[in-house]
Queue: 2 jobs
Job 1
Amino acid sequence: MSFTIAIDGPAAAGKGTLSKAVAAHFGFAHLDTGLLYRAVGAKTLLGVEPIEAALALTAEDLNAQGLRTQDVAQAASRVAVIAEVRAALVDFQRAFAQRAGGAVLDGRDIGTVICPDAAVKLFVTASAQVRAERRFLELSAKGDPCTREDVLADVKARDARDMERVEAPLKPADDAVLIDTSQMSIEDAALRAIAVVEARKP
Ligand code: CDP
């Protein structure tokens, strides 16, 4: 039986940590859909044309080194405005969502476009400052020589591009449960998410 959990939200909202915790708790598979766009974005930085890169994407591309850098994040959000790029990635995401045993997908348009019938929809957010600080600590811990200012600028620029695009803009689905993690640790947010899912499980 399939059971889909859609987790959307702006840049660096903690969707990854939260999604992994929810997936691990329920024994569901997890897909970080941002990685699809990052993998396409990374290819464009190597000179590949975006639509071509999206159509030729393979599972191996998702394991490429360096997909978590800010340059790749920016490239991802630039290719993510292209309708043909998004269309090329739809079938893979929907097939993943339908897999037996349950699936958690995190991204920007999972509850609105990819899986409008998801059993549970969460919209995870936090202030831009809090999100930028979390991402700064994460990147610094990996040895990335970023500054707080750069990270905040990246988060704000991507939020604006993601919210203003015509195709599948970032916004909460009407039936999404909002989780604002500005004043909450990601661990507490994960517990809250697990409780929401628990209440909806058959
Ligand atoms: O981890 P973070 O929240 O910083 O970003 P991500 O989830 O890896 O997504 C990178 C970029 O891909 C986003 O800024 C979006 O432009 C795009 N994206 C999207 O358009 N739709 C999705 N379902 C997932 C990501």
Job 2
Amino acid sequence: MNDLFLRALHCCNDSRPPVWLMRQAGRHLASYRALRSRYSFLEMCHEPDLISQVTLLPIKAYQMDAAILFSDILVIPEAMGVGLHFEETKGPLIERPIQTAQDIDQLPSAEEIFKLNYVAQGIRCVKPHLNVPLIGFCGAPFTVASYLIEGKSSRNLKKTKQWLFQDPESFHRLLSKIADWSIAYLHLQIEAGVQAIQIFDSWANYLGFDQFKEFSLAYLQKILLGIQKTHIPSILFCRGSSVFAPQLATLNPAGIGIDWNCQLITMRQQVPASIALQGNLDPDLLYAPLSKIEQEVNRLLDQMTGDKGFIFNLGHGVLPDVSEDAVRTLVNCIKRREPCLATSSF
Ligand code: CP3
């Protein structure tokens, strides 16, 4: 078992940093596109054997140090019954977006979490094939709420922000309901065998400093407290973490995922050494010539040398049109640092 990732997440890694990439199990892989030509995205999310196969693709292609469950943050809205589709070019579309406070109260309670049992089956299916830790995940309540309200990917989250300022009370009820589902969903994943979890707040960067505290942080805290007894380490990732990381650190998560707008080494001065830092190369760097990728990867590795809680990643997900050579160059550059001495203990 390669447990570099868990060691780094516990801030006690004496070997080279572990590497995995957000969206590693996605369209940039030819093996993913081949499977995807035979099934719709949601079919792939629903079928335990396909969940397992896709989760394994980046492990086989690059020997990443951690696997992330193949699924999507929008399976919770789907289980809530709002009607989820993925259009080839438009991304997610929700048939019945939330439009009134009454709609919020009509969303089913988290007792219906059993609708996501297929995810637990996928986890059980993939676990025997893995020699690296498996990361489970969910979306942060603010980001999931934005999809429920906008009904699709949005350029400015206008309806969401209008709702938040015009009727904060019902907006809080929505966030609270999503947080309850998220807690139940993470318990389901943990019982099935994930060894760490990450919460994605992809659109937190749309929030002002105080709004972040009220509408995002409070619910991240609710989720962390809700799964605290499991002792499974959590990573909080948000776009905007170069600004919000000190606020995230007050929740004392195992790790924080940092976007690419700051220097990670500078961020370390604001985040205690007991919290792992994950990140933070610009995802567009993977479009650069391979020699430039190596140069930038080495620069980040040099800056973070000796940091026992550093997990190598991008500042957001791998983009669908980067080359596998680019990703392989990045991974190999990290793996060339020091031999991996770590063996099991977690
Ligand atoms: O990271 C991984 O490889 C594991 C799987 C994973 C997916 N989505 C698969 C996926 C994870 C962790 C996610 C998280 C997710 N989903 C987020 C948060 C992280 C982030 O990137 O900000 C968000 C906002 C979503 C919602 C979502 N899912 C959108 C907006 C889209 C369409 C745009 C896009 O990137 O394709 C998806 C679809 C999606 N989720 C795909 C994959 C592999 C592509 C679907 C396809 O094959 O057409």
